Amino acid sequence: MTTLAPPSAGASAPVGGPPAPPPPPPPPTTEPRRETPRPPARPGLALAGAALCVLAAVLLGFAANLTVVGHLQHARDQQTAYDELRKELALGTAPVGQRDYEGKLLGPGAPVALLRIPALGLKEVVAEGTTPEVLMAGPGHRRDTPLPGQAGTAVIMGRQWGYGSPFHDLRLLPVGSRVEITTGQGRAVYEVTGIRRAGDELPAPVAAGQGRLTLITATGAPYTPNGVLRVDARLVTAVQPNPPRDLRAGWIADSEQALGTDSGAWLGVFLWTQGLLLAALLTVVSFRVWGRWQTWICAGPLLLALGLADSQSLTALLPNLL
């Protein structure tokens, strides 16, 4: 009798049968994401970073104020002053002395005249006062002198390089050139008689009933004034009457003299610098906590604005004819 042995365990499946399913893949092995540890906080580095932010903002704002931003500010201030002066001339309320039509003493920056120098292509509104802040907006009339067109010597100062540099080409003005000034008393015309620098001979005193105009600006290398340039011109039109004056010759502050500086601007520098330092500290902290790009997008404009404000106060500490 024949006995059939059972198939061995390793025997293959019958031919023609379904293929054996592949073995299941092994489970994926995922390693936990490793986070880069933040460096330990160092107050000294944070303070140094804030100081660098303050320095960069002030230097950038300072350069901008003396160049592009300052020129734009001058153009805006001139347009505003021109509109105000034109309105006052049309209404007959433009100032003709140290007081306005209501009898109040003119404040610094009030428009008092329109200056034209055809030979230089210059047209500027002249404001009352000669402090550094007033001369940022354009030429200024020295308050202790008569207005142009009146008897005596009228003095107008202007910047040489910064804030529109209205008197930059004053040294090129030839003798005999005309200077036209419009005030509340009408149009006055002057004729240039000479240009003076330090050490030059002084002109003869103005005769009674005559008028003279002196235009003043700085001399020296760009943004480093070391002297004063004066252009003298004699009045060739009729002399206008002089109203009573409250300020006599010399009754002005040192900041209104030629190359004068405003020591009162230190308060603004102190306050703006404090705000800038606080914003810089917050920027450094936000840089570590929030992120680089988010911080710069939000803090950049703020630092720039504070830097411009701080540097403008610093500019008032520089000579007013710069």
Automatic annotation (TrEMBL):
Where are the bilayer-spanning segments?
Answer: 45-69, 265-287
Q: Name one Pfam family in it.
A: Sortase
Location of the region described as Disordered in the Swiss-Prot/TrEMBL record: 1-43
> Which stretches are tagged as biased composition: Pro residues?
16-30
Q: Which CDD domains match?
A: Sortase_E (cd05830)
The UniProt regions of compositional bias labelled Low complexity, in chain numbering, are 1-15
**InterPro entries according to UniProt:** Sortase, Sortase_dom-sf, Sortase_E
* GO molecular function (one): hydrolase activity
Which keywords accompany this UniProt record? Hydrolase, Membrane, Transmembrane, Transmembrane helix
Q: Specify the protein name.
A: Sortase
Name the species this protein comes from.
Answer: Streptomyces fuscichromogenes
